[in-house]
Predict the structure.
Amino acid sequence: MYFDQFEQGQVFDLKPAHITKELMLSFAEIYDPNKLHMDEKFGKTTRFGQIIAPGVMCFMLVWAQFIRQDIFGEQFGGALSTSIEWHHPVFAGDTLTSTATVTEKKQRNKYNGLIEITYDVYNQNGVHVMTDVTRSVILRDVK
């Protein structure tokens, strides 16, 4: 979609993302080798009672669903920033559902604009587990 086709308040429902223990451990081993994500014995001693999914991994799964839906298409000029807030832990076996809402639309120049998308992510029980705000450059239709 071109910048001008987006509307503030526009909502996109994203396909679910399933969290497996194998994915959690694999991601954590490479990108976030924190005991809280990898060591089951340690996880049992925490307030969560088990290991939890790396938060960045959870966002990347949501982002992947957004990209697979090809909403930006070839007009995507790159992300400028992202800000993640974690509200509740995510566990192996959870399924995340998400909405992506256009929360800001700002023209930068005659060639592109800034689209801010807020992702609200919930687990299968309807618990709000994460909010992310990503700002991206989107091309304008300047034909």
Q: What stands out?
A: The longest helix spans residues 55-68.
